[in-house]
Amino acid sequence: METRPQPAPQPGRQAHSVRRPDGQPWPLPRGGGLSRRHVRARVRARAWARARSGVAVAVVVGLAASAGLMAGPAWADGQPGDVSRATAAPSAAGGQVVGRAADGPDAVALEKALRGLPDRDATAALVRVGGDGSWRGKAGVRDLVSGRGALTDARFRAGSTTKVVTSAVVLQLAAEGRIDLDGTVQEYLPGLLSDAFGPITVRHLLTFTSGLQPGANLGPTDGEGYERRFETLTPEAVVAASVAKGPYRGPGEGPGKKQRYGNIGYTVLGMLIEKVTGDSYEHQAAVRVLRPAGMWHTSFPGGPDPRLHGPHHRGYQLLRDGRLVDATEWNVSDRWAAGDMISTTADLERLLRALFRGKIVPQPLLDREMFTLPEIDGATYSAGLQRFIGEDAKTVVWGKSGARPGYATAIAATRNLSRTLVYSVNATEAHGELNPVSVRIIRAVFPLELPR
């Protein structure tokens, strides 16, 4: 396992905290970042090395001068923030809900879904509903220290929605004849897997049916992983740990036999993209997907850089010991092609439209791979997307969710784009992509069976 020690604190950074409603402190490290667009990251460590050698970092305004002046957020049960459909009305906690509705979306249900933020489940939320009618909403605060209202254009960690982009790149290369979906990892990346593995095809990787076990990680994000959040775990180290475990064994096991969702297959796909193209994964994703879709505010960290650049909300994670900590700055190099993308709700909506309309992956490959499930019992995932069936047994929704500490995201749409949904929730529990706020948002848009 390759790791890098946590960087030393930057000059001038001090420990500060805000207070919970019960008067106890939440230690919240300061942080921020300069606004900078970067979609090409061919040398992954370069950006963070420059930052550590002198690039100025913007800090949270007012922390040093007024750390004791910020009251805790209004999280009392039964006292939700105010909601306004037509104007940006401040909530009781300093956040806002801004909505615009036309034919289709249930504006009342959507406003109710966002009402009361920040609360124990999330500090902010951004929602975009499109298709037959549209609705745009935001609620909560951009950070718990200043209490300033949420930003419509905030950047956030998009988590596993990155897999949609990775899948699209692979399918483009397949359409060009540069990748054979029935070709094997052993052929494309000789020496990566041990002799213990049977043939694993590119399609197996895309559809989560490879039989590869999970790779290395730095520990639970609500415990050890938080303490090690600035360490670097390379894709090579992640895959090596998976290979060392060997394949899943037992009756009914083997490539193409069972579908198990995870990150490892998409980490290998990132390696495959680089091997076939001779280019970085990040650059291939940018030129093949981000730019054609018009995703000009979407980027990749480019390695160990833990910061979010440009306007963003602070993300908070509830730890096992009860502390709510600032998780905004986090080295996500271990997620790479499986989940390190940074985006906005507007950009992810552009991705949905361009992808579903066949502007990214050509037909008929798009329908055959992204909108068709493998013939495996219980399969719900295609090549990068997940299928959901509505409670009415008629509505079919395709989408992908993702979560990183402090950030939960999802994109979803009907195949004909008659209804689309993109949201980003600053959830305080990263383990549950379907946190209570996310569930309320989804149920307000699609008639899906979800936990309440």
TrEMBL record:
UniProt-listed InterPro entries: AmpC-like, Beta-lactam-related, Beta-lactam/transpept-like
Superkingdom in the source lineage: Bacteria
Record key words, sorted: Membrane, Transmembrane, Transmembrane helix
Annotated region (Disordered), positions in chain: 1-38, 77-99
Biased composition (Pro residues): 1-10
Stretches assigned to the Beta-lactamase-related domain: 111-430
Transmembrane segments: 54-76
Name listed for the protein in its UniProt record: Beta-lactamase family protein
